Amino acid sequence: MRESVIYQEIHEEGLLEGIQRGLQREISLVTRLLTRRVGELSPELEAQIQSLSVETLEDLGEALLDFTGVEDLVSWLGDHAG
User: Fold this and answer.
1) CA-closest candidate to residue 22, choices 54, 68, 61
2) How many CB atoms lie within 10 A of CB 52?
3) What number is the average pLDDT over the span 15-32?
4) How many whole angstroms separate alpha carbon 13 and alpha carbon 43?
5) DSSP string computed for 13-26
6) Burial class (CB in 10 A: 0-12, 13-18, 19+), 44
7) Helix, strand, or coil (residue 51)
8) Which runs of consecutive H residues, i.e. helices, occur in the chain?
9) What residues have CB less than 8 Å from 6, skipping those under 6 apart?
10) What is the pLDDT of residue 31?
11) pLDDT-derived band of residue 1, with 50, 70 and 90 as boundaries?
12) What rounded mean pLDDT belongs to the chain?
């Protein structure tokens, strides 16, 4: 059964969905933490955050602890985003 093409496709789809859900949760958490730390985020900043790789998003999650204002976030994104 596990060797069948259909099983493999379903298994792969399930894994991808799980990864996507995990990424969305991480984006949501970092966004909530940033909002508490620096205030409301503009749609442009939210879009930039959503486009970050997992590794960069994790780095942002650590860096935000040092932020004192939205300017720090903008500067950090300028240095680290794409």
Assistant:
1) 54
2) 20
3) 84
4) 30
5) HHHHHHHHHHHHHH
6) exposed
7) coil
8) 5-38, 43-50, 54-63, 70-80
9) none
10) 96
11) low
12) 89
Residue linked to tokens 């939210």: 46
**Residue 82 to residue 69: CA distance in whole angstroms:** 22
Q: Name which of 79, 72, 28, 81 is nearest 51 in CA terms.
A: 81
pLDDT tens for 45-68 read 999 999 999 899 999 999 999 999
* pLDDT at position 5: 80
Task: Retrieve residue 14's tokens.
Answer: 């399930």
CB contact at 8 A, 50 and 28: no
- Token couple for 36: 């508490």
Cβ 82 vs Cβ 67: under 8 Å: no
Structure-token match 């942002």, residue found = 60
Token code pair at residue 66: 């040092």
